[in-house]
Amino acid sequence: GKGRSPRNPKRDLVGDLSKAVRDSGLQMGLYYSGGLDWSFFWDLGKCTDKASDEESCRPGTPNTNEYASYAGAQLKELIEKYRPAILWDDINWPRAGKSVTFGELSLPKLFAQYYNKACPAGLINERWGFKSLVSDPWKWTGDFGTPEYGQSDVVQEKVFETCRGIGKSFGFNRVEEQSENCMAYMKASDVIVLLIRTVAKNGNLLLDVGPDENGHIPKCQVTVLQQVGKWLNQHGQAVLNTVPYAPARVKLVTDSPVFYTQSANQTMVYAIVLGGRVKHGAPSADKQMLFRQAGIPALTIQHGNVSGILQPDGSVAYVRTEQMSAGLVMFIPWSVVPAGGASAWVIHFSAGLLPSGTVLDCTVSKDCVYFA
User: Fold this and answer.
1) Which among 319, 337, 344, 348 is positioned nearest to 245, based on CA atoms?
2) What CA dihedral angle connects 139, 142, 144 and 146, to 10 degrees?
3) Cβ–Cβ under 8 Å, residues 279 and 371
4) Which of 79, 101, 218, 342 could form a disulfide with 338 if both were Cys (CB 3.0 to 4.6 A apart)?
5) Directed axis angle between helix 188-199 and helix 219-235, to 10°?
6) CA-CA distances (angstroms) from residue 255 to 229, 244, 289, 298, 367?
7) pTM score, whole prediction
8) Alpha helices in the chain (DSSP H)
9) Alpha carbon of residue 169 to chain centroid
10) Cβ atoms of residues 198 and 205 within 8 Å
11) 246-249 contacts: CB < 8 A, separation 24 or more?
């Protein structure tokens, strides 16, 4: 149709893109739809006027030996030719190809080739459908899980990667791009809050952007990415190369106004306060922020000035923190509290000055942090 790119561009798009990504100092991962080849037509004969959704038209995962060989050969090519840092499968895999008895194009053999030769430091996701096999000797759950457009409220023991589009689609959607005032897309503040909640539960965020047919990322999406990047330039240390501070299997309050992370070397704890969730009240010389601990050991401070608020210029404004009967209290000069429009702001705690095992907790009480 008019405006469509040719089906065969007569160039190695995956190779060119992989090179450009790596030349920029980034890692390249590849997606493969193992359970459904989108170049084949769906079985439209199964669709009727009464069909309520597309699922009734799908052929399901082809499970013939021929299709397993077809998919296996393509995956082998991706592994050998492009050596992706991540193998990201979707919609299951042909059943015949899951058994090592299928030969060199079986998933066990291909995974061995990937890990042992092509990319020893590589990662593979969990959507290959092994857990659906009752007799599966691997009990394969992948290197990481991939919840889509949602996630658990529980801190996970195993790293996961929540994935979603910047809108409601994966890839370019002209209808979304033409929406009034970019309303079809997430706001930058929503992306930042999602990132914070994800990292605090031991996850990564995979945010899909959709270039158009000419390879251009639409302006609405660029604006969101730039605003998120600006926040990360100031506060990135609280989410990048960090781990959850709350213990695994703890359920976090979804609408909590504060989430916690800690540096990978466990020398710094970050309390990330979501903008708009904490009532500031009238300006005064000092505001008292109370951190309550419910059902956990009381937090004690060994000596003062162990916490601070990250400022726009990257410096930390240290503030007085005291242990009182109500809990840990921070005295914050109004001048260092970020403006009300901030998406989120960060409080630093020097973990080395806190007793071992101390938890700054927001898992039980929704009002675990507030301004007095």
Assistant:
1) 348
2) -90
3) yes
4) 342
5) 50
6) 24, 17, 18, 23, 10
7) 0.78
8) 13-23, 65-82, 107-113, 174-177, 188-199, 219-235
9) 16
10) yes
11) 246/155, 246/200, 246/359, 246/361, 246/363, 247/155, 247/359, 248/155, 248/156, 248/157, 248/202, 249/154, 249/155, 249/157
Tokens 């037509």 correspond to 41
Encoding tokens for residue 365?
A: 């009480």
The contacts of residue 335 (CB under 8 Å, 6+ apart) are: none
Rg (C-alpha) for the chain, rounded Å, is 24
Closest by Cα among 325, 186, 351, 364 to 269: 351
Tokens in use for 308? 């601070």
- Cα–Cα distances in Å, from 7 out to 133, 226, 305? 36, 32, 62
From first to last of the 372 residues of the chain, give the pLDDT tens digit.
444 555 677 889 999 999 999 999 999 999 999 987 777 655 545 555 444 444 455 555 677 899 999 999 999 999 999 999 999 999 889 889 998 899 999 999 999 999 999 999 999 999 998 865 545 555 678 999 999 998 888 889 999 999 999 999 998 888 888 888 889 999 998 999 999 999 999 999 999 998 988 889 999 999 999 999 988 988 888 899 999 887 788 777 666 667 888 888 877 778 787 764 444 444 444 444 444 433 333 333 333 334 555 555 655 555 566 655 555 555 555 555 555 445 666 666 655 444 444 444 433 333 333 333
CA atoms within 13 A on the CB side of 108: 14
Other Cβ atoms closer than 10 A to 210? 18
